[in-house]
Automatic annotation (TrEMBL):
UniProt KW Hydrolase keyword: yes
An example Gene Ontology molecular-function term: enzyme activator activity
Protein name: Coenzyme F420 hydrogenase subunit delta
The keyword Flavoprotein belongs to this UniProt entry's keyword annotation: no
Record keywords: Aspartyl protease, Hydrolase, Protease
GO terms, biological process: protein processing
Domain of life: Archaea
Family the UniProt entry places it in: Belongs to the peptidase A31 family.
PANTHER family to which the protein is assigned, alphabetical: HYDROGENASE 1 MATURATION PROTEASE, HYDROGENASE 2 MATURATION PROTEASE
Species of provenance: Methanococcus maripaludis (Methanococcus deltae)
Length: 160
């Protein structure tokens, strides 16, 4: 049985950990979206570091999801705060997506979701600083300045 949070046609996941500086980007985008009126078929999830759990559940045949939008930091050596829409092929080039704490690559789940017919979009923001394992709450100015544009990109993808 799939969780209630996954019973939407469109799901927006914010990934990352807000106690490691720019890794909190996904959380901050989700926080902004939660204050907006979105269509009834859109679910918003602060996935934190638990995205594999949610993505595994999407493979259930009871799942109604047709589109997923992931919001997360990336490292493509771009200027900090730069937003980039990634394809599933790009995901295998991101260390964060090729492994996780349970040796379950996030990229594998996203590729399988796409292969099963789910539209997959990843909106990445180039981080300036990720402090893990040291705790630092709050985004750098460059990443914080990209939040509104990231929200606009999510809204565009919802309406495509």
């Amino acid at each position: 049985m799939i969780p209630d949070s996954l019973k939407y046609e469109i799901l927006v996941f914010g990934c990352g950990n807000l106690i490691f500086a720019d890794d909190g980007f996904g959380y901050e985008v989700i926080s902004k979206l939660e204050k907006m009126e979105l269509p009834e078929n859109v679910g918003i999830i602060d996935a934190g570091t638990g995205a594999p759990y949610y993505l595994m559940s999407l493979m259930d045949e009871e799942c109604n999801t047709k589109k997923i939008i992931i919001v997360d930091i990336i490292d493509f050596q771009l200027p900090p705060g730069t937003l980039k829409i990634l394809s599933t092929e790009d995901l295998t080039k991101i260390d964060k997506y090729t492994f996780d704490a349970h040796d379950m690559p996030l990229s594998d789940y996203l590729i399988k979701a796409k292969e099963s017919g789910i539209d997959v979009t990843v909106i990445g923001c180039q981080a300036k600083r990720v402090t893990m394992p040291d705790i630092e709450v709050g985004l750098t100015d460059e990443v914080k300045a990209s939040l509104d544009d990231a929200v606009k990109l999510v809204l565009e993808k919802i309406n495509e």
